[in-house]
Design a protein that fits this description.
Structural class: alpha/beta
Number of domains: 2
Strand order of the largest sheet: 3-4-2-1-5-6-7-8
Radius of gyration: 21 Å
Helix content: 40-55%
Oligomer: single chain
CATH architecture of the largest domain: 3-Layer(aba) Sandwich
Number of strands: 14
CATH class of the largest domain: Alpha Beta
């Protein structure tokens, strides 16, 4: 069975969404599905300028436009956004050509509407079923930032809703997101399957815990929703010698560096590639994810806490909805109150003084092994594809 994955972003981009896509592709390949990829005009190739690549046995068709339009959290000008929107015309034609050339059985579009509409264009013309996968209500970030942004939010919400309506099947990453989408009038009766975030344990190399002096860490995108300013403020107030290592890049980087200025215990380690992520985990004992509370963070389940559990690291997370779907307090991690640097301080002090953490760490690893493996998820996708192909 051949499946075309239509991706807005992918490797070499190292965001959580790209890692999820990588693991979907690799595990589908392992079970006999033939995944093929086409990426948006806003995603660079592994080798600059390449339009066709093979990576880890998987074909990638590239349609990259230019550096000014690359996937980023940074604000782009109005004209650039309009230009990016019109890229959907040519991208739809490229998707159509690949589906026809490769004799694709199922088209799997991944968030966002740009990919969904392009996939549905090809699917309609060539009579191929389309799966649309929603990973977050990303448009929510526009909702509270002025009238113009609210209009953008409303417009994108409509586009996303129609993307889901015209899909043959919808995949979401958690039950909370599913329930929110089913409240929309047009989606109440749509077929939706939850395929949760998971970990490819074949990629994980576990290092030993440093019990003498815990090293705390954050690995991921330096985004405003992550609450890293609160984490740094907590470390600035603490009179401890434990290190805090921050891996990643993002629009908050310079702000966070200013907040940490003068604190020699806080180190910014830069971007770590997906192939070298184990080297980052080798340096860290405790992962902290202090996400702030919002509609977005209550409906999105992040990948990084699961990854940390797989590497047998102690996981500390704030009590936003997306985190609570992954972590059961004092069982496979520790939960603290969000939006409070004092709560972060308290949980760090508590962890340093405890000697009963091995069980929590082991429970986290077993949770990944038994419930959050991509080998299990690959079977869910295969079942969806098979049913659509046979309809």
């Amino acid at each position: 069975m051949k499946v075309l994955h239509v991706l807005y972003q992918s490797l070499p981009n190292s965001a959580g969404s790209s890692i999820r896509s990588r693991d979907i592709l690799n595990n589908q390949l392992k079970m006999g599905v033939t995944p093929i990829v086409i990426t948006s005009p806003f995603q660079q190739s592994f080798e600059i300028g390449k339009l066709y690549e093979i990576n880890s046995g998987i074909i990638y068709y590239r349609t990259f436009s230019n550096e000014n339009e690359i996937v980023s959290e940074k604000k782009t000008g109005f004209l650039t956004q309009i230009r990016k929107l019109f890229r959907i015309i040519n991208f739809s034609l490229q998707v159509y050509k690949v589906v026809k050339k490769e004799n694709i059985d199922v088209i799997h579009a991944h968030a966002m509407f740009f990919c969904a509409f392009s996939a549905q264009f090809a699917g309609c013309l060539l009579n191929k079923p389309v799966v649309y996968e929603i990973r977050s209500l990303w448009e929510e970030r526009y909702k509270k930032n002025g009238f113009i942004n609210y209009l953008i939010f409303s417009f994108v919400t409509i586009l996303e809703t129609f993307s889901m309506l015209f899909a043959n099947h919808i995949v979401v990453i958690n039950d909370n997101l599913k329930s929110q989408l089913q409240k929309r009038l047009f989606l109440m009766r749509k077929k939706m399957t939850v395929v949760e975030n998971a970990i490819d344990l074949d990629r994980v190399k576990i290092s030993k815990l440093n019990k003498n002096k815990f090293v705390f860490g954050y690995i991921g995108t330096l985004s405003p929703i992550e609450g890293l300013d609160l984490l740094i403020k907590a470390f600035n107030d603490l009179k401890i010698k434990n290190k805090l290592l921050i891996f990643g890049d993002g629009i908050e980087l310079e702000k966070l560096k200013k907040l940490a200025n003068g604190n020699n215990n806080i180190e910014f380690k830069g971007i770590v590639s997906s192939d070298e992520i184990s080297k980052a985990y080798d340096q860290v004992d405790v992962i902290i994810n202090p996400r702030i509370k919002s509609y977005l963070t209550d409906t999105v389940t992040p990948l990084k806490p699961l990854e940390a559990m797989a590497y047998k690291k102690l996981v500390l997370v704030s009590n936003v909805g997306g985190m609570k779907e992954l972590v059961k307090n004092e069982f496979n991690g520790i939960i603290f109150k969000s939006d409070s640097y004092k709560e972060i301080k308290n949980v760090i002090i508590d962890v340093i003084n405890r000697d009963d953490l091995d069980k929590i760490i082991e429970n986290g690893y077993m949770y990944i092994k038994e419930e959050r493996s991509w080998k299990i998820n690959a079977k869910k996708y295969y079942s969806i594809y098979k049913n659509l192909k046979n309809d």
